[in-house]
Amino acid sequence: MTPEQPEDREGGVLPESTLARSARLLSLPLGVAARASVGAGKRLFGGDADQIDAQLKDAAAEQLFAVLGELKGGAMKFGQMLSMFEAFLPEDLAAPFRTRLRQLQDGAPPMPSSKAQAVLRAELGSDWRREFAEIDLRPAAAASIGQVHRGRLRDGTEVAIKIQYPGAEAAIASDLRQIKRLTAVMTPLTGGVDLASIAKEMAARVSDEVDYTLEAGAQSQVAEALAGHPRFVVPRVHQFTQRVLVSDWIDGRKLTTVIEDSEDVRRQAALDYVTFLFAGPKLAGILHGDPHPGNYLITPDGKLGVVDYGLFARLPDGLPKPMGQLIRNALDGDAEAMLAGLAAEGFIGKDVQASELLDYLAPFVEPASVEEFHFNREWSRGQFLRVHNAMQPGGVATRLNIPPLYTIIWRAWLGGIAVLSQLDAKANFASVLREYLPGFARA
């Protein structure tokens, strides 16, 4: 099996060759074009325009979920990223996609147990079963890079056994190359979300995410630092190889399930979520770089369980102090100080006026400007429209850079805003920044 052919379709793991996977991805924009032609014909013969548009969008959502979910790999990771940002889209685009894309946050068609056992045998040895008193060969969860099985160690500890799909790295790299080529024609599916930047950033971190030894190191560091924390639960690592990771099992429900809960429950979940993103660097020297809600669980006792450390950044000194200072300057309306600080950190690429920069960034720091802020879809869509317009030729966003140090921080920040908007939560988020973001609190 060559690097360009991770698995065949019959194997049911990462289906099809690179050529076939590319053809499946290409079917997405082609499907949009074909349905648009059919819709135009129906309108021509007197069909109800609103009903036809709704049917077309629903069909596009169904196809997107089917293709990205079945292919797994980079295709599914890309779909999971889109599912986070549905809160930014206009409702007529977001509604058909919401349910189906949310399914990509929670699972995918699993690989056969024979394949899972083959990976365990290759990674842990022929007597791998001796490591466990019990293992359920039916996966508890199946995602883009691997799937999780529930098991029990010899000492009785309940564990999650994370097993990587064979050929995951090659499939992800192939998918993301193809997605980058198709971003222009796939944009109608996503209402203008910057697909190219998402694919580029994901591709740059492929090799890190498929090496479970790196993930195990980061997870162990956070678990040790936060052991006994009153609000967070991080699973301890028991064993790991490059493609298998065994850690504590955490019971809980997905973060997104609180959307239907009371305002108090949503407020606490949102505060815990934001606090963990900011507290991780200060308390453990690690930034959890994937704010995807599938990585966060509400435990039976109401704590926040955090899993999947495949994407992270080591920040031994915590979040950069200039970051907090820049946000404080923006809140104080000190445009010149903010411009100078951004230039010193390497954000300014071309000539930018202080006033236009302040106007562009003001909404991003708005949640920190008040003692209680309400994240919701209406607010997030307004900010998305502002960003989208600012990224047009000559816009202020096109004259800014994101330095390497801040790339993963920006992803976590933007993804966190998207998730909070889905939760429709109102809370004192500024207090979290004052406690955990260096340079933000007033002297």
Describe the structure.
The protein is an alpha+beta fold and 443 residues long. The chain folds into three domains: 9-109 and 168-207, no CATH class; 113-164 and 211-248, Phosphorylase Kinase, domain 1, CATH 3.30.200.20; 252-443, no CATH class. 53% of the residues lie in helices and 11% in strands. It has 16 helices and 14 strands. The protein has helices at residues 18-44, 49-71, 73-84, 91-106, 113-124, 168-186, 195-203, 206-209, 212-225, 263-284, 321-331, 335-345, 354-365, 377-390, 404-423, 429-436; strands spanning 132-135, 141-142, 146-153, 158-164, 232-233, 237-240, 244-248, 253-254, 286-288, 296-298, 304-306, 312-314, 373-374, 426-427. Strands 1, 2, 3, 4, 6 and 7 form a six-stranded antiparallel β-sheet that branches. Strand 6 (237-240) and strand 7 form a beta hairpin. The chain is globular. Mean pLDDT is 77; it is low at 1-12 and 25-56.
Spell out the key features of this protein.
single chain; 443 residues; alpha+beta; Phosphorylase Kinase, domain 1; 6-stranded antiparallel β-sheet; 4-stranded mixed β-sheet; 16 helices; 14 strands; 53% helix; globular
Number of helices: 16
Could you describe the largest sheet, including whether it forms a barrel? 6 strands, antiparallel
Q: List the uncertain runs.
A: 1-12, 25-56
Structural class: alpha+beta
Q: Give the terminus-to-terminus CA distance.
A: 61 Å
- Global geometry: globular
Summed over residues and divided by their number, the pLDDT gives a mean of 77
**From N to C, what is the helix and strand string?**
HHHHHEEEEHHHHEEEEHEEEEHHHEHHEH
Portion of residues within helices? 40-55%
Oligomeric state of the chains in view:
single chain
- Write down the domain tally: 3
Q: Rounded to an integer, what's the Rg over CA atoms?
A: 22 Å
Number of strands: 14
Beta percentage is 5-15%
